[in-house]
């Protein structure tokens, strides 16, 4: 595993150039993103200390059963979540991925996030496995509407204008099926380089992507503060990941643009 870090600018430019060259030569590159890419936009990881899950326990608020049995209670969480996401802006890491796609060097993004920041940054192909928080959905008649800030005001649970049922955010609650599995399979097929960004990819279906790419001889780039991929059950040996080929250590808001700069130099040269 090659390690490139942003600490004290101590990264090895030779390694960075090598990584950029690998990316440039890849016939198909896909990104997998998680909570870590949006921390730089002011959205804390829900699982972190003081994060949303420490206030609203998922079992108690975030399951489909709670929504069906007690929508008023479930909406306490949805309002807190909505107010956390409201007005947040994409950051340089999101924009770096949008630039890669525009340059024809990224085929698409699989994201665990529900914050819409990839689309806001200009990315086109974004598969949201956990849905999105920008729409409300009706489980009865499949009506879908754009969320308004007023939906997050205290008050009655929003109702479907078509059938009157309680609306829920268009997100995948615990107990609901993840989305876009067929599209993910298609996107990941033939993928030579997988960029894993801001996630330890421990949970299905994200967990299967790095191994799928590796089994076909592909290359995995990992961008995390601490090396997380491949630990705890994916063949990590002595703390060294058997999955990650290139580890970019540091804040993804710095490491992704750093790779993009190296890539520009590589393509220009
Ligand atoms: Zn309806």
Structural description of this entry:
- The protein is α/β, with parallel strands linked by helices and 269 residues long.
- The protein is 34% helix and 17% strand.
- Strands 1-10-9-8-2-3-4 form a 7-stranded parallel beta sheet, with helices on both faces.
- β5 and β6 (144-146) form a beta hairpin.
- α6 (92-102) packs parallel to α10.
- The chain is elongated and about 60 Å long.
- It starts with a strand and ends with a helix.
- Mean pLDDT is 91; it is low at 233-239.
- Zinc ion binds at residues 138, 140-141, 143, 160, 162-163, 165.
- Residues 138, 140-141, 143, 160, 162-163, 165 line the site of zinc ion.
Find the count of extended strands (DSSP E, 2+ residues). Answer: 10
Which ligands are bound? zinc ion
Query: If you average the pLDDT, what whole number results?
Result: 91
Name the assembly state.
Answer: single chain
Unreliable segments of 5+ consecutive residues: 233-239
Give the CA-CA distance, first to last residue: 26 Å
In angstroms, what is the radius of gyration? Answer: 19 Å
- Largest sheet: spatial strand order: 1-10-9-8-2-3-4
């Amino acid at each position: 595993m090659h390690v490139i870090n942003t600490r004290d600018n101590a990264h090895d430019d030779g390694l960075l150039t090598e990584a950029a060259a690998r990316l440039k030569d890849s016939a198909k590159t896909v990104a997998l993103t998680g909570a870590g890419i949006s921390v730089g936009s002011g959205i804390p990881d829900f699982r972190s200390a003081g994060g949303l899950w420490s206030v609203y326990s998922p079992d108690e608020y975030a399951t489909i059963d709670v929504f069906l049995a007690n929508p008023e209670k479930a909406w306490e969480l949805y309002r807190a979540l909505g107010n956390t996401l409201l007005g947040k802006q994409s950051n340089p890491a999101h924009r770096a991925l949008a630039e890669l796609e525009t340059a024809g060097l990224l085929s698409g993004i699989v994201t665990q996030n529900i914050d819409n920041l990839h689309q806001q940054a200009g990315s086109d192909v974004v598969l949201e496995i956990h849905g999105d928080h920008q729409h409300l959905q009706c489980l009865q008649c499949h009506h879908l509407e754009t969320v308004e800030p007023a939906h997050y005001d205290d008050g009655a649970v929003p109702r479907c204008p078509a059938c009157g049922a309680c609306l829920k955010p268009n997100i995948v609650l615990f107990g609901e099926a993840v989305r876009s599995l067929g599209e993910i399979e298609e996107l990941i097929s033939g993928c030579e380089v997988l960029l894993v960004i801001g996630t330890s990819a421990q949970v299905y279906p994200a967990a299967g992507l790095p191994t799928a790419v590796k089994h076909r001889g592909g290359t995995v780039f990992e961008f995390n503060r601490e090396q997380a991929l491949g630990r705890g059950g994916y063949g990590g040996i002595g703390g060294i990941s058997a999955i990650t080929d290139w580890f970019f250590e540091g804040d993804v808001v710095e490491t992704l643009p750093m790779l993009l700069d190296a890539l520009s130099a590589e393509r220009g040269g």
